[in-house]
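To close the section, here is one more complete example, presented without commentary so you can practise reading it yourself. The ligand is zinc ion.
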Amino acid sequence: MTLRVLGIETSCDETAAAIVTDKREILSNVVLSQLEEHRVYGGVVPEIAARAHLEHIDKIIHAALSDAQLSFTEIDAVAATCGPGLIGGVMIGMMSAKAIAASQGIPFLGINHLEGHALTPRLAEGLEFPYLLLLVSGGHTQILVAEDVGRYKRWGTTLDDAAGECFDKSAKLMGLPYPGGPNVERFAQKCSAPEAAIERFPLPSPMKGRKNCDFSFSGLKTAVRNHVQPLPAGDLDPKDIADLCFAFQKKTAEILADRCKNAITQFLDEYGAQTKSPTLVVCGGVSANQAIRAQLNKLTQKYGMHISAPPLSLCGDNGAMIAWAGLERLQRGQNDPMDFRARPRWPLDANAAPRHGAGVKA
Ligand code: KG4
Ligand code: ZN
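Output:
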């Protein structure tokens, strides 16, 4: 018998629903981005996001069912992101999932959005535990060990901005539209003289050389601001943008690699003996960035470690990762009660020591 789980994701600015099976098949994966609604504000506006989720959620769930050529009666369980994220949106996805579960008499699973990202390589390629995880998104930048479903050790986190947030804020300083990440990558590809760009726009390397796995990005963002200020007022010259984007993207990749280097050494030391093929997983929206993937690829090769990054369709927020996390939990005999609460803050490792300044990003 095939198990089929419907997954719903509404924690940020994507309204998404998908159906996956225990054979690791993605029967449908519908993602509606609200980019246009938020673009004029230069970032996600929580209330606008919540209203858009409310308007579209039914349609998106039905689209996921119809793409998979299934009806509600053929679904075995329903999973929804219940945090962390923007609470208005989270509530809409969670309540929709509970309503479906109640009306169909099937299990409901409340999923941690970060666990959705973290388990994606198990859906995409059947990766086995344990593995090292670099989670880089708009809201989080963390290094964790995934020991099992629901069992994570957080080794490092950002002390200020998340990497994706730094991409978005730096892009905004350069006059590029939201979301910054893909636009910075696009402009960086247009840079015709990389060496000169790096020399022209020197940037700091926060935390470099420190023995831990923590990150800091706010200094990088400030340095971008300082480089933009002396440039001629008005729209920046496309060549200036390309050069600065290149320098910024390269520096971000180096920072991520420097922090991952410490984590890799520690992982090989502590888990090397119990893993046939030690792997670094890079996940979250920023993992779509090719320059970052290339830098981390080089690093892992040096240490004889594999690297796994989800296919681009599973990097950003999507329902398939939530359905899969639900499926993994269901297979372990778990489900959640109807009074399960939405959690705006929900760390993957509840035992990790709080980091000063990290707030909800820890
Ligand atoms: O995981 P995600 O879709 O949503 C969160 O849970 O945050 O990540 C969104 C973040 C945004 O900050 C976006 O700018 C960044 O991922 N991003 C990228 C790229 N594509 C998306 N950053 C750098 N390069 C990209 N190609
Ligand atoms: Zn995400």
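Once you have examined the tokens, check your reading against these statements. Residues 12, 137-139, 164, 167-168, 179-182, 185, 284-286, 288-289, 316-317 surround KG4 (ligand 1) (CB under 6 Å). Residues 228 and 254 are 21 Å apart (CA to CA).
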